[in-house]
């Protein structure tokens, strides 16, 4: 059983349009379960109704999602993984920085032609939403606690110490790799 939150979208390479049936919603407390499955197709508008056929060269292209955070001009990207070459289906596993703010994200998919992109296609924009959790009230209580600044400072100091230790270990290993 999977607890992933999977949404299906279709990217039409013929005109760059994005199609999805349901709105895409995630929760601010979701962790490593936010997925968007993208089927890449070519449309044949000469046929009625239009035919959507998977692209032939799925292994030759790379997809990235680029999303603008709510109330911000800051954007983040994530690369897709090809999960079904015959059907040209890619999976975006959205990292935390693409779901870490409550609100409406404006996104687009970038299609690159191979490792050295000579051609780039940008899809039409689409939106996904990140909702708050009932636990968000506790975040407000923590932020209002008079000891919060001290706790935040201690966390930053521990992170700095951890980084220093990691650097020292890496230097030690590099300097002593012949004797290890």
Describe this structure in words.
It is built from two helices and twelve strands; from the N terminus they run ββββββββββββαα. The mean pLDDT is 82. It is extended, with a radius of gyration of 22 Å. 21% of the residues lie in helices and 39% in strands. A hairpin with a 5-residue loop joins strand 1 (5-12) and strand 2 (18-19). It is of the alpha+beta class. Strands 1, 2, 4, 5, 8 and 9 form a six-stranded mixed β-sheet that branches. Strands 3, 6, 7, 10, 11 and 12 form a six-stranded mixed β-sheet that branches.
Question: What is the structure about, briefly put?
Answer:
This protein has 180 residues and is an alpha+beta fold. It contains two helices and twelve strands.
Tags for this model:
single chain, 180 residues, alpha+beta
